[in-house]
Amino acid sequence: MASLLLVEDDPGIRGAVIRALTERGHVVRSAPDAMSGLQEAVSSEPDLVILDLGLPDLDGVELLRMLRAVSKVPVIIATARDDDAQIVRALDAGADDYVLKPYSAAQLDARIRAVLRRSLPEDAPKVLEIGGLLIDPRSRDVSVDGRPLELSPREFDLLAYLAARPGQVVTKRELLAEVWRLPYGGADKTVDVHLSWLRRKLGENASEPRFLVTVRGVGVKLIDPGASSHA
Ligand code: CA
Q1: Any idea which fold 3-119 has?
Q2: 13 CA distance to ligand 1 centroid (A)?
Q3: pLDDT exceeds cutoff 90 at 73
């Protein structure tokens, strides 16, 4: 899961891309022109920007230069097939990758993941290993007792966030803020729902947890099932 900003003036493309990326677990904001895109990029600090080069108010490459002056956010540009010179200009101006229109959601999502992997800081955590659970933040592979798990992007982010803090109780408010980048709403069941999906894939349930222990009224913690401190 990533928080994305889509700068695209075509409402049809905008709607379709937002839908497709949201279905893949991303949080997607959008802007219909360059200036509101710049504003949104600065105020919402997305993990990555998808930038259409043909915008009504300003050339996309100009926007990219302005953005680069204030932000290192990874940028994928979207452009028409015959725009070779534009692609070169955009890459020179600091774009991280590009997609050719029309692009599929699957391809865009793969490029997003690749760009985000590359942009991880050098000191990003290596593989996490907690009592049979292996989590690789770079490849986003997860296995339990050697059995690979198919996790959605959000399930992965949730698990990785908890696994980076083994034994530590994390509140739902913190999970919503850090994993979903959402404000806390009292009735929000999002975290519970994703935790239960995650538990199912880990082969456990809330009443007999192996890794994910609910601390009633507080939150959840990921524990090492082999560690004796857990009773
Ligand atoms: Ca356009």
Answers
A1: Rossmann fold (3.40.50)
A2: 9
A3: yes
As residues whose CB is below 5 A from the ion ligand 1, the structure lists 9, 52, 54
DSSP conformation letters of 137-182: TTTTEEEETTEEE---HHHHHHHHHHHTSTT--EEHHHHIIIII--
Cα(91) to centroid(ligand 1), Å: 18
The rounded Å distance from CA 119 to ligand 1 centre is 26
Q: What residues contact 209, with CB distance under 8 A and at least 6 apart?
A: 199
Domain boundaries, the chain: 3-119, 128-222
CA of 149 to the centre of ligand 1 (A): 39
Beta-ladder partners of 100: 79
DSSP 102-131: S--HHHHHHHHHHHHHHTS-TT----EEET
Instruction: Yes or no: say if 79 and 53 are a contact pair by the CB < 8 Å rule.
Output: yes
Distance of CA 78 from the midpoint of ligand 1 (Å)? 9
Task: Provide the CATH number for the domain formed by 128-222 in this structure.
Answer: 1.10.10.10
Residue 228 three-state SS: coil
Rounded to the nearest angstrom, the distance between the alpha carbon of 174 and the centre of ligand 1 is: 37
Mean per-residue pLDDT for 101-114?
A: 93
Separation of CA 1 and ligand 1 centre (Å): 26
70: amino acid identity, one letter: V
Kindly list the distances between the CA atom of residue 204 and the CA atoms of 169, 198, 213, in Å, as whole numbers in the listed order.
19, 9, 10
Q: What percent of the chain has pLDDT over 90?
A: 68
Q: Taking the model in full, what pTM does it have?
A: 0.57
